[in-house]
Design a protein that fits this description.
Two copies of one chain form a homodimer. Chain A is built from 16 helices and no strands. With 394 residues, the first copy, chain A, is mostly helical. The longest helix of chain A is centred in the last third of the chain and has 31 residues. Chains A and B meet through helix 1, helix 2, helix 3, helix 5 and helix 6 of A and helix 1, helix 2, helix 3, helix 5 and helix 6 of B.
């Protein structure tokens, strides 16, 4: 019983944690509950709206399947579902009519062939990356509706009534979802994407701003373990590609909201995101240098010589990124603030080159200074990367 | 018309390309067509199997929704759907009975509250990463079935008949999918994962094997543009995390097949995959050094000194990775072949240290040799990484 109690407590804690991390999750759950209850009760009370009949079920089905976390997700699924149902329904009616021309014996054969061909072709189309990203759900609903309509065995005039009922209930369910997701505490995919990209820049900035101090001072103290205790927030950027892409896909379906117009250049965020990842890869390489114990051997004298310029390079890069992130958040032109930091970091890069040229290496051997030199060299790459990011943001 | 023709031709080409890249896509499309046609015709001929009635529709629905590219995906969706429908159906019956105790007026209110609570709780549970990864679809079907059953407005004894019909048609549709996906040209997620991870190791190996020769010889010719023409196959590894994880998730549902037992350690592949990504990040950093024009300035004399050991390090790493990939493919113990290459690369690493110590730097300045030295230093990290991969594979 003690074990069970502990497990219950830990589960409760993780539920609380999940809600605290993003309170919108709780709101979302309540919104789904609300939409479903509304539509269900409408279905329950169908004797009143007898026009819908059994088809009211499709409204419930639509709500469950279509309601996504973001507005863009919900809109994309609803519109996909609506159009696919309409199109496939019409095609299905046509197929039914066409098959009926072949008489009682030929009908099932023709229908079978048609269903087979259409299902195979539509399934294959789902492998196209562009269709997969945007219309995957629509194609699925298309196959579903087409085969249901084609083989339903109803006569065409019955089918028209049925199709009308189903389509109207789907529209009802879809409209409920869209209205609730847009007007009750909306979660905009576009805004999330915007925040994700700018917070990624911030994470990079935090690492770079602190890096110089931590790296160059550590060897004066004990020199080991800093890599492990140092904030590793940037690691989440390494695998951010797929989530950014799906957000950008959803954002395309969203109407203008807040500070974003309808045709906001969402693709541009993907570009900035890719550059941020590039920068994170470089940091990962630096981090490898820090974590490995080699840097203890690094000649302190040499480290002292490059300390100033390296620290400045990384700090200025960090400041530039922070300025870019801030200006993204406030949607102002970052030119003046970020650019001066970029210029400063480039100046520091030149200082590093001079420091390296001036470093006399008569008593220090190259193997010992290599780790520190590598860090400097990768910082140079980071400066270039930050410059590109700064250009992209503007 | 010429423009239209060109577009048709280019579309046709891209369709052909898609099929050629992975012919299993064509087979998959035909399999879906087959399954759907079988189930549809059964539904069409339902006067014969009158037990199913209207519910035959659910078999069609199941096939469309459940049939995935890999066996594991199909099994996971089918089992999720089956269990969720059963569980939610039973709970829905209970809720219906419970609500009926409150009389005609209380019933819709109680049902509404129950649907709201259950939908909100279940939706929230989908945010748990573990549930999201494995049971997302099941939870969705659970919400769907529960609300459909609870608010259907049928009496309980009618519902039992209906539930039995629906469940049996879902099982029929699911069984069709499972049988076809397992016995007709199966695509095993586990095997795909195995191949993906070992081919990732091979991509790394290809880069590393060729790297030394290309990098050190390029400066003797013209020295620019090699980075761009050099095979960039490793880039796909950088973003491989999500696809590997979903394959591993599907693989867990698959029965033993070919050379894989039922409880094959799929998680282990994720570990190897993560190490391979780590290695790819380092290569990305090296690649940055190559692409940037700095290496033209690199002192040729110094480069000559470290050429031997660096080329050997990278070539031996490449050979070790290739041996590991081969032994993964043949599922033999890689100990003897890979280990000797790892040892060789470590020996080369020591040579590099000696070469660096021996390098007299009186006339060469540090800024000029830095890029080449950085490449050497990152190669050292790669050697360590390859050693870890080799340990993980064994």
């Amino acid at each position: 019983p003690g074990k069970l109690k502990a497990k219950v407590i830990s589960t409760a804690k993780s539920i609380k944690q999940l809600g605290q991390n993003d309170p919108r999750r709780i709101t979302h759950s309540l919104k789904v509950g609300l939409a479903l209850t509304l539509v269900s009760l409408l279905y329950y009370a169908r004797p009143i709206y007898d026009g819908f009949g059994e088809s009211g079920m499709w409204a419930v089905l639509t709500v469950v399947v279509v309601f996504e976390f973001t507005v863009g997700g919900t809109l994309s699924k609803t519109l996909n579902r609506g159009f696919a149902t309409f199109l496939a329904g019409a095609l299905g009616l046509g197929a039914d009519y066409f098959a009926s021309l072949f008489g009682k014996d030929g009908e099932p054969i023709v229908l079978g062939i048609l269903v087979f061909l259409l299902a195979a072709a539509a399934t294959f189309s789902r492998f196209f990356p562009r269709i997969k990203a945007r219309y995957d759900y629509g194609v699925m609903i298309f196959i579903l509706t087409f085969s249901l309509v084609a083989v339903s065995g109803y006569r065409v005039n019955e089918l028209v009534v049925l199709a009308h009922q189903r389509l109207s209930t789907i529209i009802m369910g879809g409209a409920t979802c869209m209205l609730i997701s847009i007007f009750v505490c909306p979660v905009w995919a576009g805004e999330d994407l915007h925040k994700a990209v700018s917070s990624n820049l911030e994470k990079l900035a935090t690492y770079l701003e602190g890096f110089g101090g931590v790296y160059f001072q550590s060897s004066e103290n004990d020199g080991n373990g800093i890599g492990k205790s140092y904030p590793q927030g940037y690691k989440s950027i390494l695998n951010s590609k797929s989530s950014e892409e799906s957000l950008a896909n959803f954002a395309r379906w969203e109407p203008g909201h807040g500070r974003f117009r309808l045709r906001h250049p969402w693709k541009h965020y993907l570009k900035i995101g890719a550059l941020a990842r590039q920068c994170a890869y470089q940091i990962e390489a630096i981090n490898g240098c820090i974590v490995s114990d080699d840097h203890i051997q690094a000649a302190d004298e040499f480290k002292g010589k490059i300390e100033g310029s390296c620290t400045r390079m990384s700090a200025e890069c960090g400041k530039a990124l922070k300025a870019l992130a801030t200006s993204m958040k406030t949607m102002t032109d970052p030119y003046s603030s970020a650019n001066s930091h970029v210029e400063n970091s480039k100046a520091a890069m030149k200082d590093l080159k001079f420091a390296l040229k001036a470093a006399t290496l008569e008593n220090a051997d190259l193997a010992a200074i290599l780790p520190a030199a590598t860090v400097g060299s990768i910082l140079v790459e980071i400066v270039k990367c930050v410059e590109k990011i700064s250009e992209a943001v503007q």
